């Protein structure tokens, strides 16, 4: 099937991001796999091509506005779901070494298929809850970046994500534009977990207000965090 990629290329130009024809084809293949799998598994409520481009692909790539992604860095995408933002970031920045983590194995199996079909390398999947994976020395404080588009308050996400970030690295949370109160409520949790708020980066994306909350990892995270499964969401720090 032929797709009109003019909108996609225009949005990429707005990001000062240039992709090759083969990278554009990878995005199209990813879209087709997403829509096909979505027929039997709930991956996304957004299925129109241009909407997926805007609300999933470009939204994922907007990280490039604020973070240098062209260097060889390690990144873990926590609660990746259907692969956002990790898969778009890997396609656009092949140098990144990416781990996709999710608690639902069916999603991990789908992502394994995507990685195989797109021929992506240096990208891995791991099935598990953040509370368990963060206790594993293979993952704990091993990453330059932890990113998450998952829907949870920032205190909870910080407890899930900061344990994966090495000192000197950053946790970046994808948020809506209206997140000031949530950030204020999370400051004590961020401090407890070894983090420090770096910046709140707000911008407009067509009709949507978006934010990237960037948190620096300045100290090691106490081994008592994250707490056992369920507690970070039920009783945020």
Question: Would you mind describing this structure in some detail?
Answer:
The chain is α/β, with parallel strands linked by helices. It folds into 2 domains: 1-72 and 84-128, Rossmann fold (3-Layer(aba) Sandwich); 129-237, Vaccinia Virus protein VP39 (Rossmann fold, 3-Layer(aba) Sandwich), CATH 3.40.50.150. The chain is 38% helix and 23% strand. The chain has helices spanning 6-14, 21-38, 49-61, 86-92, 105-118, 130-133, 154-161, 180-192, 231-234; strands spanning 74-78, 97-102, 123-127, 143-148, 165-176, 195-205, 208-217. α1 (6-14) runs parallel beside α3 (49-61), α2 (21-38) packs antiparallel against α5 (105-118) and α3 (49-61) crosses α4 (86-92). The longest helix is centred in the first third of the chain and has 18 residues, at 21-38. The protein starts with 5 loop residues before the first helix and ends with a helix.
In short:
This protein has 237 residues and is of the alpha/beta class. It has helices at residues 6-14, 21-38, 49-61, 86-92, 105-118, 130-133, 154-161, 180-192, 231-234; strands spanning 74-78, 97-102, 123-127, 143-148, 165-176, 195-205, 208-217.
């Amino acid at each position: 099937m032929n797709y009109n990629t003019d909108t996609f290329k225009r949005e990429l130009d707005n990001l000062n991001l240039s992709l090759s024809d083969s990278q554009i084809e990878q995005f199209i293949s990813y879209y087709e796999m997403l829509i096909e799998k979505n027929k039997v598994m709930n991956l996304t409520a957004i299925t129109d091509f241009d909407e997926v481009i805007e609300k999933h692909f470009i939204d994922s790539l907007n990280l490039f506005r604020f973070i240098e992604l062209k260097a060889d860095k390690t990144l873990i995408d926590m609660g990746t779901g259907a692969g956002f933002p990790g898969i778009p970031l890997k396609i656009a920045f092949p140098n990144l070494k990416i781990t996709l983590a999710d608690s639902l194995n069916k999603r991990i199996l789908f992502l394994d298929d995507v990685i195989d079909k797109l021929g992506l390398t240096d990208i891995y999947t791991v099935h598990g809850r953040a509370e368990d994976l963060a206790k594993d020395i293979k993952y704990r404080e091993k990453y330059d970046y932890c990113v998450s588009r998952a829907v949870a308050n920032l205190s909870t996400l910080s407890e899930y994500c900061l344990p994966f970030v090495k000192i000197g690295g950053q946790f970046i949370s994808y948020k809506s534009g209206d997140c000031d109160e949530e950030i204020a409520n999370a400051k004590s949790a961020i401090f407890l977990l070894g983090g420090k708020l770096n910046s709140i980066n707000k911008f407009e994306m067509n009709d949507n207000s978006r934010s990237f909350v960037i948190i620096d990892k300045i100290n090691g995270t106490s081994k008592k965090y994250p707490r056992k499964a369920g507690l970070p969401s039920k009783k945020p720090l």
